[in-house]
Each structure stands twice: as C-alpha cells, then as structure tokens.
Amino acid sequence: MLFNPGRASKVRSSARLAILVTTTCAIWTPITACAQRLPTYLADRGTGIATSMFGEYVRSGELLVYPFYEFTSFNELEYKPAELGFGLDQDFRGKFREHEANFFLGYGLTDHIALELESALFTTATLRKSPSDPSVLPPKLKESGFGDTQAEIRYRFAYETLKRPELFSYLEVDFPLQRSRRIIGTQTWAYKFGAGAIKGFSFGTLTARVAGEYDEADKQVVFGEYALEYLKRFSPKFRFYTGMEGDQDEIEWIVEGQYWLAQHVHLKLNTALGVTSKAPDFAPEIGIMFSFRPTMLYPASR
Question: Using an 8 Å Cβ cutoff, are 156 and 167 in contact?
C-alpha cells in the first residue's frame, strides 16, 4: 500500500485534538462541562488510563481512593484437601463465604503510566466441608485477617482516535503475605501480564482485554484473565457498566451502576453472577470512589 500523507496527517490531528481537549478541560472547566466538549468516542470515559476497577479511569496527576466492601458466595467451591494441608489429593465441592474490607489506590503518573495498589485490609472466610469428603479437613474451616494485596503498573501505548482504539497493557504482582493461611490471602508470588483495547461509539464504549498468569507454586505460564466490557454514561450523574469476565474456566457476568454524589465523589454498586459452575454464585460490591487532583488545575467556582 502506498503511503498516504493526507490520511496520516488526519490521524495525527485527531490524536492531538484529544490531548488538547484533555489539557484545556482539566485546567479550565469542571468534569461535566468537560465531558460535553470531548469527542464522541470519549464521552463515556473521559481521557484517563483504564484501571483495574470496572469502568474507572485515571488521568495524569489524579489520585483515586476507593474504600469498598465485597462479599463472595460459592455454593460449590472446588477444593482439594491436599492443597489445604489435609492429605487427600482429590476434588470436592464445598460451601464458601467471604467478607472483605478493601482499599484501592490509583495514581496517574503521566499521560501514559498509571500505578495501582489494592489490598483486603480485613478478610473473614468460611469453607464448609463436602459431605462426601473423607479427609481430616474440619467440617468448618474459618480464617480471618489481612487478605490479598497486589500492585499494578499500567501503560497506555496508543491513544484512541476517531478510527483507532486505545491500546494498553498492564503488569500485576500479587504479594505472598499470607503463606501460613489456607483460604484467605495469597500464599505464593503470582504475576499477571495483560493487554487490552478500548473503543468508544455513539451507543457506548467497548473494552476487550486478555492476560497470561504465572504462579510461583505452579511454575508455568497459563492463559488467565479475559473480559469483554461495556460502559455508557447516561447523564452527568449516572454511568452504567456491564461485562463478562473470566479466569480460565471461571466466568462471571458483572453489572454496575455509578452515581455521582459530588463532582469528585461517586458511589459504585455492582454484583457479579456466576456463569460457569466454578465461578462465584454471587459477589456484590459497594464502595465510594474519591478523586483528588492538583488544586492548581481546578480553580474555585465563582
């Protein structure tokens, strides 16, 4: 194909326009007014980098703080007594319930790089033994304390334009802070590397992502997390998210509503429903997302 300088110039101009609008809106106008001036393909999500939180994006210099509660219910959680320290290397299904008080931080280091830290500050979990399990596992195994903790770095390597999707990648590290625990926390180092694409349309914004995983215990790279997501802003105060997310043979359907209580504060309420038998049956989440930006970029309203 012959190089077309006119077409290349249009693509570059579209990208420059998005960056210019981002900078101008950040400095001179509030979020709702800025959203009205964005290109149509950015109207649902704005100009930030995609984070690991459903339907959330962080801009350069912005700090996201999200305390939230999550409940997870399995009526038939697959487990092996041997992996829990009770000898028998055979699969069984038991009832599992978990409550987590979580805390998430996200920071836009630059227009291309974002950092994240997420931790379950307190977790309590209960596993009820399968009636068919003959091992010495107690009928009811319960643990509580500090839970999973992971950090991520996210990199946007291509801005979205009128015709081209935004492209991003991410690296997640799970810390083995609970090596002595059986059903809460992370017992071994685990890594996840993924990539995704985002494209906005008049009917909403679509995101697709996929990742590979490596666990210190298994010592092999496996096909891991994958998702197809949809986001739509219906008004300055309400945004809707839904998606299908999986990890190998565990697939969930997630629905979330986001309601703005103030310009930089919004309520997040979602629930995940299991699509496959190995996924959680029910996993609701509720929290409040706070956004902090440099004061100099947001003059006081008159």
Answer: yes
Range of the domain at 271: 5-297
Q: Which residues pair with 222 in a beta bridge?
A: 213
150, 119, 91, 129 alpha-carbon torsion, rounded to 10°: 170
Q: What is the CATH number of the domain that holds 112?
A: 2.40.160.40
The pLDDT tens digits for 252-282 are 999 999 999 999 999 999 999 999 999 999 9
Identify whether the C-beta of residue 291 lies closer than 8 Å to the C-beta of residue 64: yes
CB atoms within 10 A of CB 236: 14
Q: What is the pTM of this model?
A: 0.84
**With left for phi above 0 and alpha for psi between -120 and 50, is residue 85 left, alpha or beta?**
left
Q: Return the number of other C-beta atoms located less than 10 Å from residue 58's C-beta.
A: 23
- C-alpha triplet 50, 52, 55: angle, nearest 5°: 60
Determine, yes or no, domain membership for 302: no
pLDDT digits (tens, 9 = 90+) for 32-57: 444 458 899 999 999 999 999 999 99
Backbone angles phi, psi at 99, to 5 degrees: -120, 135
Tally of domains in the chain: 1
